[in-house]
Design brief:
alpha+beta, single chain, 15 strands, 5 helices, 199 residues
């Protein structure tokens, strides 16, 4: 399976670190851009209210420790290039994943904030692996854990945004110690998406 990580080049040091270490940074889930991230409704029965309240507290405490690294199944989304790669001035890393990662989950897109029954649910990953359907275009996969950095596979290509500067193009090539293929992209105005540049 191939996944893609979109990156702005501001600051460039974050991108050069990925190229050198082949690791990706996990962010505190509260710093993600979805204002509804991590929210849920809870089902509480009167018979077990006291016990459930403690379960909810433990659930929230565990959730507060979790971090997220987001990837996408697509490289061609104009919106993803715009939002996460500085309006096509950044890059997208292609990662080949050959082994199963328990902490790598496919995001499930739902119609509204989820309802949690704490008599059957105890792991907060279930909350952070669901988003409202408004975000479905992202085709997101998430690595969810407490790590600071993660290697999920081999970086097999670096796609350059169609508006990347000549200076940043040179920087990418200079830092490319592992000779990762560097691929130019362009905009397909007929299909409103990003495609490989015809050289």
């Amino acid at each position: 399976m191939k996944l893609y990580k979109y990156k702005s080049l501001i600051p460039f040091e974050h991108t050069s670190e990925i190229i050198q270490t082949r690791q990706f940074y996990l962010s505190d889930w509260k710093n993600l851009n979805d204002p509804m991230e991590g929210f849920f409704y809870q089902i509480v029965s009167e018979d077990s209210e006291i016990e459930t309240n403690q379960i909810v507290k433990d659930f929230i405490k565990f959730k507060s420790q979790l971090k997220v690294c987001s990837f996408s199944k697509t490289m061609s989304s104009l919106l993803l290039w715009t939002y996460y790669a500085n309006s096509n001035k950044g890059v997208a890393f292609e990662i080949e994943i050959r082994e199963k990662h328990e902490k790598l989950v496919k995001v499930d897109y739902i119609k509204r904030i989820q309802l949690i029954d704490f008599t059957t649910v105890s792991n907060p990953v279930i909350v952070l692996s669901k988003k409202i359907s408004l975000w479905a275009y992202e085709k997101e996969y998430r690595y969810i854990g407490i790590d600071d950095h993660v290697t999920i596979g081999e970086i097999t290509a670096i796609y350059l945004g169609s508006r990347i500067s000549a200076e940043n193009r040179k920087k990418i090539k200079d830092f490319n110690y592992y000779n990762i293929p560097i691929i130019e992209t362009e905009l397909d105005f007929s299909k409103n998406k990003v495609v490989l540049r015809n050289n």
